[in-house]
Amino acid sequence: MAEKRDYYDILGVQKSATADEVKSAYRRLARKHHPDIDKSPDAHQKFKEINEAYEILSNPQKRETYDQFGHAAFSQGGNAASGNPFQGHQRQGQYGPFSYYSTSGDIPFDLGFDLGGFSDPFRIFEEVFGAASPFGSRAKSRTTYRVTVPFEVAAKGGERTLSLDGEKKTVRIPAGIDTGTRMRFGNFDLVFEVEPHSELRRDGDDLYVTKPISFLKAALGGTEEVQTVDGSVMVRIQPGTRSGTLIRLRGKGMPSLQGRGRGDQYIQVQIHVPNRLSKEAKKILSQLEKELDVS
């Protein structure tokens, strides 16, 4: 049997990677190698491998166990030769949660999670990306409608009355849907297309907005009004801010469709330099350049 690859190498992250970094790497690779997108002969194996790595590294308990014992901790038939750290203990049941018993008759302890039988990779994909897979291989033989909704509905949810094959249907749309989200309603499915926002750009549950500011405000500091899904807010610009600086608004992103709170909003500062200056303005800036000695 071929030796299993390191889970961190599979996702292309360091062992010190945060949970968000692990999820971001998974989202990128899972989209790329989904069998309905990647037509290479080993696409299914790659997709399964990526999901297996994510299933372990996204779970704090499983990740801690993997860091300590490696693949042996999740081996179905491990023994002393394979380096299984639980060799010499009896396993109760084929699938978890497992309780391990000491051969000396000590009180059993429960690890609290399933060590055997990895989950369906398509189910993991669907959970991470919001709902059912937007690709065809998992689609059921149900009537499916594609629906376009405003960005605000995706952010806040709400009821919508839709005309489907000439019939009016009222559905409740949860906050956090994204383009490609597939959801089941009664005897039909809806696949959503979310209209873009005029200012905000979305990446998963996080939002990004570019904010132009004057070079004087970048140097001296001040406040700027910034658009969020909750309305406009005033943001503090620190003195000496450089172009490209990201300002984080924690919890101001999109709601998670899985109910895990909200993402963040990032403001990318862009310093605006005027194309034309009056003679007086040029004179003032020349004096300022000498004063600051920025040459």
Topology summary:
Layout (H helix, E strand, L loop, with lengths): L6 H5 L7 H15 L9 H15 L2 H10 L20 E2 L7 E3 L7 E2 L10 H9 L13 E7 L1 H6 L1 E7 L2 E7 L8 E4 L2 E7 L6 E3 L2 E9 H6 L1 E7 L2 E7 L8 E4 L15 E8 L6 H14 L3
Parallel strand pairs: 4-8, 10-14
Antiparallel strand pairs: 1-2, 2-3, 5-6, 7-8, 9-10, 11-12, 13-14
Describe the structure.
The chain has 295 residues and is of the alpha+beta class. It contains eight helices and 14 strands. A hairpin with a 2-residue loop joins strand 7 (182-185) and strand 8. The chain starts with 6 loop residues before the first helix and ends with a helix. The model is unreliable at 76-117 (pLDDT under 50).
Descriptive key words:
295 residues, alpha+beta, Helix Hairpins, HSP40/DNAj peptide-binding domain, 3 domains, 3-stranded antiparallel beta sheet, 8 helices
Amount of helix: 25-40%
> What would you call the shape?
extended
Q: Could you give the order of the helices and strands?
A: HHHHEEEHEHEEEEEEHEEEEH
Number of strands: 14
Based on secondary structure, the structural category is alpha+beta
Fourth-level CATH superfamily of the largest domain: DnaJ domain
Unreliable spans are 76-117
Mean pLDDT: 78
The CATH topology of the largest domain is given as: Helix Hairpins
The proportion of residues in beta strands is 25-35%
The end-to-end distance, rounded to whole angstroms, is 65 Å
Alpha plus pi helix count: 8
| Overall CATH class of the largest domain | Mainly Alpha
Main sheet summary? 4 strands, mixed
Rg from C-alpha positions? Answer: 26 Å
Side-by-side strand order of the widest sheet: 9-10-14-13
Q: Count the domains.
A: 3
